[in-house]
């Protein structure tokens, strides 16, 4: 590798914020405002909120719309037992998101609401912008449904 020594002052944009008289963040950032640095009032958790092991306490404000539940909730609880620098944290969270999709579909069907899969999975946009992928997806679903129905017929005999 060739290391080329460059004078950083000749690079365009280098040190643009070094001069306080030429501050690109003015007036959005008021440097004269005396910020105390006190912590905002802590929001009270009314449902289970998962917390990173890297943080000693919850952030002052956090989301609590859907508490973890079911298999996806168990995976999320497992993930938050591990450091954010590990795959053991992120991969279970990704898997939990996918599992929660199916859990919510099952909950909708239990409540008597049949989901509109075509609209909810972006079928209209796929038909407009990527017809071959949509056709492949529909074919895979049809073949999968056929195989599952054949398997159930054999089990019932």
Describe what this molecule looks like in 3D.
This protein has five helices and no strands. It is mostly helical. The protein folds into two domains: 40-115, no CATH class; 116-157. The longest helix is centred in the last third of the chain and has 26 residues, at 131-156. Residues 14-37 are annotated as: Disordered.
Topology:
Layout: H1 70-79, H2 87-110, H3 117-120, H4 123-129, H5 131-156
Helix pairs in contact: 1-2, 4-5
Region (Disordered): 14-37
Unreliable sequence segments = none
Cα distance spanning the termini: 70 Å
Number of strands: 0
How much strand content do the residues show? under 5%
The number of domains is 2
Mean pLDDT rating: 83
- Radius of gyration, rounded? 26 Å
Order of helices and strands: HHHHH
Number of helices: 5
Largest beta-sheet details = none
**What oligomeric state best describes the polypeptide chains here?**
single chain
- Which structural class matches the secondary elements? mainly alpha
Structure summarized in a few sentences:
By secondary structure, the chain is an all-alpha fold.
Features:
mainly alpha, 157 residues, 45% helix, 2 domains
